From TrEMBL:
Similarity section: Belongs to the thioredoxin family. DsbA subfamily.
Transmembrane stretches, start-end: 12-33
Top-rank taxon: Bacteria
Listed InterPro entries: Thioredoxin-like_fold, Thioredoxin-like_sf, Thioredoxin_domain
Protein name, per record: Protein-disulfide isomerase
Region (Disordered): 40-71
PANTHER family: DISULFIDE BOND FORMATION PROTEIN D (PTHR13887:SF14), GLUTATHIONE S-TRANSFERASE KAPPA (PTHR13887)
Keyword annotations from UniProtKB, A to Z: Disulfide bond, Isomerase, Membrane, Oxidoreductase, Redox-active center, Signal, Transmembrane, Transmembrane helix
Domain Thioredoxin: 55-181
GO function terms (MF aspect): isomerase activity; oxidoreductase activity
Length: 245
């Protein structure tokens, strides 16, 4: 798999503390009830990720490590399958906060991947609709040629999302051509049932654990939801690594 393209870290975004505190309680209840099979929860989190909560703290916090696949054949993952810590990323290619995370925080996480301490598993939830699902299929088609992360980086170039028009089938095929991929194979994989099924399975994984908004993360079995500062992930990784050791 091609190496991550280097990026410089920029100051992370912040959210109002009061909103974060209230929303953290809500997401803890939603995640826990979805995990326990309780269908009584109503409403969904803001699909933009804005105003979403930080890590859910407290001794009773459930473990969501079942979201980890640790599958050597996973085309949307990077890092050792036996890494002590896994972060599962639930994202959407039209989500601006997902783009910010990829630009600002992922380079910090990639350092731990290179050290062999972290595995990143990417899952698209596609809460923004057909263009998102099409982009997710395109990224998987690129992954079939070993270029998932290169394609992913271009979809989030500069920490920004592309317009819906730039996520048309023609535009996505043109991007594959720019990256030097076999466009005939890419076009076939983009439209294949196998690709569609894989994307649907990834989305269902997110929905099954209550990831109704993006970005959402399971890091070391613990949920982190929304547009959080990079330091939240750095600290969560350090805690998870210490616990694993």
């Amino acid at each position: 798999m091609p190496a991550e393209s280097p990026r410089s870290s920029r100051p992370a975004w912040l959210l109002p503390v009061a909103v974060v505190a209230v929303a953290a309680i809500l997401v803890a209840l939603i995640l826990a009830m979805n995990r326990d099979g309780d269908t009584g929860a109503t409403g969904e989190l803001d699909p933009s990720g804005e105003g979403a909560p930080t890590e859910v703290d407290g001794p009773a916090q459930p473990d969501f490590s079942e979201a980890e696949r640790r599958d050597e054949s996973d085309l949307l993952a990077i890092g050792p399958v036996d890494a002590p810590v896994v972060v599962v990323v639930f994202s959407d290619y039209q989500c601006p906060f997902c783009a910010k995370w990829s630009e600002e925080t992922m380079p910090l996480m990639t350092e731990h991947v290179e050290a062999g301490d972290l595995r990143i598993e990417w899952r698209d939830v596609n809460v923004f609709g057909p263009a998102s699902e099409r982009a997710a299929r395109a990224s998987y088609a690129a992954a079939e040629q070993g270029a998932f992360w290169e394609y992913h980086d271009e979809l989030f170039a500069g920490g920004d999302t592309r317009s819906e028009g730039d996520l048309s089938e023609d535009a996505l095929i043109a991007l594959a051509d720019e990256l030097g991929l076999d466009t005939d194979q890419f076009t076939a994989d983009l439209a294949s049932e196998q690709t569609a099924q894989q994307i649907a399975d990834n989305q269902q994984l997110g929905l099954d654990i209550g990831a109704y908004s993006t970005p959402a993360f399971i890091l070391g079995g613990q949920p982190i939801v929304g547009a959080q500062p990079s330091q939240v992930f750095v600290d969560a990784f350090d805690d998870a690594l210490s616990a694993a050791e």
